[in-house]
Design goal:
alpha/beta; 3 domains; 7-stranded parallel sheet; 4-stranded antiparallel sheet; binds magnesium ion
Length: 427
């Protein structure tokens, strides 16, 4: 049986021994119980890479000069290979260890059964106790989906609900710096066509944040949206004072201005400020999102398949928030083309993503996918129409950045920023 037809049968749950499918417009139409799988995972390969940024990423309490990701390739017995990516959080070594620890739950499994694999990892593998393993599971999950799409001859957007939008909007990322430098970065983003901007704020002197935001708004003009992210660094009193001063600059969202661990405090701040709040550090999994909603702690919520393990978990998150009447945005720990596009398919097929999403594309000097830097147009990425995630690895680039990781990967981790908040211990 051709693999395409076999994959269609598998997707539709056809038991080859008993099914009596018919074709309608070339598509197999059946209603049959679950059958035998047609694909098996036979191996997982992991490749850590380090890719430099154009400019240092700097936020309230850290900085880094590039990002580290672990690319994975999942091989199947039918010769279809799937691509996945795990941002190296909290480190590449931990992601690689997590992959080695949980690959036994994927080897031998049918890659169509992503829910089963996630349950095996979470429950049998006890990973539901340990969120730090989520990026590794997310990489396996997206590689399985890449295989599913390739086996079906369909871009993932068609398997996630079909396109609601043809492209996905992203933020232009402005790291912390002087007001003049941040204004220059904003002007470059505006010249490149971005319509939504994201600036890192949150420092010891709140007045400096006001100067930074003023410089950015002056550079981009009145039209584009401007989001600020303090990464939990303000006290509630400081957040109230700074957000009041920022109101003239038309802030779209204040992302995680205070600790994400205290939802009651977020709710109190939300009741007293006129700036809409976006929950990020408070919102790692779908269970966190439910708590944010119950506490009335935010006006919008970050969701992420990398932090919650699977693409369908991100779809669930968006559904929970949709039911609560709240929009969602995709957050990012720092992703290259494989993870960015994997999520873009799901974003394009899911209601609720009404605001620009976080990506690291504007910061990255290159990528490991064919074509290098991702082709943002007007701040948007077009959803690939090739089967699966729709990207291919550039082997030369992959080798170059794998070597960079081997010789200098330790230089690409987070470095502490002095004089920042929240308080960090002296070393
Ligand atoms: Mg954030």
């Amino acid at each position: 049986m051709p693999i395409f037809e076999a994959a269609q049968r598998r997707l539709l749950g056809v038991d080859d021994r008993t099914a009596a499918p018919h074709k309608f417009k070339g598509i197999l139409c059946v209603h049959m119980p679950w059958g035998e799988g047609v694909l098996r995972i036979i191996g997982i390969r992991s490749i850590p890479v380090a890719v430099p940024f154009h400019a240092e990423e700097r936020w309230a309490y850290g900085s880094r000069r590039g990002l580290v990701s672990v690319l994975i390739e999942i091989d199947t017995d039918e010769g279809i290979t799937g691509l996945g990516e795990a941002p190296a959080y909290p480190s590449a070594e931990i992601v690689l260890t997590a992959l080695r620890s949980i690959e036994r739950f994927a080897i031998g499994e049918d890659p169509f059964r992503t829910e089963r694999i996630a349950k095996l990892v979470d429950i049998v593998g006890t990973c539901h106790h340990v969120g730090v393993t989520s990026p590794a599971l997310a990489a396996i999950d997206m590689a399985c989906w890449d295989i599913v799409g390739k086996a079906c001859g369909q871009p993932l957007v068609n398997l996630f609900g079909g396109p609601l939008r043809e492209d996905v909007e992203y933020l232009h990322y402005i790291p912390q710096g002087t007001p003049a430098w941040m204004g220059e970065q904003a002007a470059q983003g505006a010249a490149a066509g971005f319509e939504s901007f994201y600036a890192k704020v949150g420092v010891a002197d709140p007045a400096a944040d006001v100067e930074r935001v003023a410089a950015i708004r002056e550079a981009i003009g009145a039209g584009p949206s401007l989001r600020v992210d303090a990464n939990e660094s303000w006290s509630t009193a400081a957040a109230l004072r700074v957000l009041r001063a920022l109101q003239p600059y038309d802030i779209e969202f204040a992302e995680q201005p205070v600790s994400g661990q205290n939802l009651a405090e977020m709710a109190r701040l939300r009741a007293r400020t006129g700036v809409p709040l976006l929950a990020d550090e408070a919102s790692r999994t779908r269970y966190d999102q439910l708590d944010v909603i119950r506490q009335g702690a935010a006006d919008a919520i970050s969701v992420d398949n990398v932090l919650d393990g699977t693409l369908l978990n991100m779809k669930r998150s968006a559904g929970i928030c949709e039911a609560a009447g709240l929009p969602v945005v995709k957050q990012s720990l720092g992703e290259l083309g494989v993870a960015t596009y994997a999520a873009a398919h799901l974003i394009a097929a899911t209601p609720g993503f009404r605001h620009a999403n976080q990506s690291y594309g504007p910061l990255l000097s290159d990528d490991v996918v064919e074509g290098g830097c991702l082709p943002y147009r007007g701040g948007r990425l077009r959803v690939p129409d090739r089967p699966g995630i729709g990207v291919r690895l550039d082997r030369d680039r992959l080798a170059r950045y794998a070597e960079l990781y081997q010789v200098a990967g330790h230089e690409y981790g987070c470095t502490e920023v002095a004089n920042s908040t929240p308080e960090v211990p002296d070393r």
